[in-house]
Every structure is written in structure tokens, then in C-alpha cells.
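Go through this pair.

…
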Amino acid sequence: MRPLILVSILLFSLSQNAHAFLEDKEARKKITDIQTQNQATQATLTELKNSQQALEARVAAIEAIVKGQGLLDLLSQVEQLNRELERVKGELEVATHNISSTQQRQRDLYTDTDTRLRKLESGPQVSSPDVNTANGSTAADNSAENRDFEAAQSLARAGKHREAFDAYDKFLQTYPASTRVPEAQYALGYSQFSLKNYKAAMSTQQKMLQQFPDHPKAPDAMFNVANCQIQLSDVEGAKKTLRILLSQYPNSEVAPNAKKRLTVLESIKKQ
């Protein structure tokens, strides 16, 4: 009987240990699973933090570009250079115009002097009082005409294009028979172009070309017409005008610039 009791006790003890062992194994597995999940969660959290830091860095970089003075300064410098280029172009146009005007005045003076000498040499003698009176009147007229034209020129050189326009317009009305009408007509159109009144400027220059196609300023007037067409987005019209200019005035001073501008316009089409 006693051995049977001992065996029973032993079996009970073994069953208890086996049960405890099984419970411990399950607990360990759960702990391992939890640790694995925790590690995965930590890894995911780390990745999210890294992504957040990367996004913050990109946002900071974008803000730096938007707010950065370097880009703004660069754009400002480009705009300033463009304004300076336009100013230089305007001054060059005025200087070229002045040179042409001086040359024209010299030719007019030579023609007038030659005409007077021929009249004195071959014409009838005129009494001294009448000659003095006539010469005095002509000299006064020429003086007023030159003074008014130079006043308009000074306004244009000073960049006062509105006032220059009014002065040239008044000159054309006051001296319609002046030899300087073609110059004034061209200058009037250029003043309109400077005031960004491109359609009116083009009309003025075309009128000048119709009336004085052989005048030294005719090529400049045609070049100004092409520039008006460019400003009005009429690229094909501008190219046509530049081709006509190069065909009719191949040796003019403005021809090289017209050729360059035509090349640029044609290259835009190829792109």
C-alpha cells in the first residue's frame, strides 16, 4: 500500500512540473513575440522620424530659396542690366541721330552757300538795301528753326520723351517746308516708340519712309518699324521689314544691327 502511495505522489509531482513547464514555455513565447513586435514598432518609429527630419530639411531648403536674398538679388541685377541696356541703346540711337543731323546740316549749308554764290555770279545785281533785308530775314528764320529743332533734340537726349514728342510735333507744324522735316519726322516716331506707343510710332515712321525714302534717316526709320513690330509680337512682319531694309539699304549704318536682329528672329523659329 505504501509503495502505491509513493508512486501516486511521484506521478502527481511530475504532472505538476510538466504543466508548469508548458506554462513557462508559452509565457516565454509570448514575451518573445512582444519583444519582436516592439522591435518592429521601434524600427517603424525610427523610419518615421528619419522621414520627418528629411521633410523638414526639404521644407527649410525651399524656404531658404524663397526667402534667400541671393535669388532676389540675381533677379534684381538682371532687371537692372536690362534697364541699363535699354538706356545705352537709347543714347546710341540719339548719338547716331545727332551725327546724321550734323552731316545733313553740313550738306544743306554747302548747298545753300553754293546756290547763293551761283546767283551772285550769274544773276542780276540787286541793290544793297534789298539784299541785306532778304539775308537778314532768312538768317532770322534759320536761326529760329535751328533753335527749335535743337530744343527738341535736347529734350530727347534728356530722356524727356513726352516733351520731345510735343516739341517735334510743333516743329513739323511750324516749319513744314524745312529741310529738317525728315529728321523731325523720324525723331517724332522714335519719341512715340520710347513712350511705348508702338502702333503710332510705326505709322509715323512709315509716313516718313513714304515721303522721304532716299533720306539718310530712312534706314533708321525702317529699323524702328521692325522694332515696333517686335514689340507688337508681329515677328513675321518684323522679319519681312528687316529683309527689305537689308535689300534697299545694304550699306547703311544700321544694316549690321538689322542683320543681327534678323538672325536672332530666325533662330527663334528654328528652336
About this structure: Residues 69-123+131-270 form a domain with the Serine Threonine Protein Phosphatase 5, Tetratricopeptide repeat fold (CATH 1.25.40.10). The radius of gyration is 46 Å. Confidence is low (pLDDT under 50) at residues 123-137. Residues 2-67 form the longest helix (66 residues).
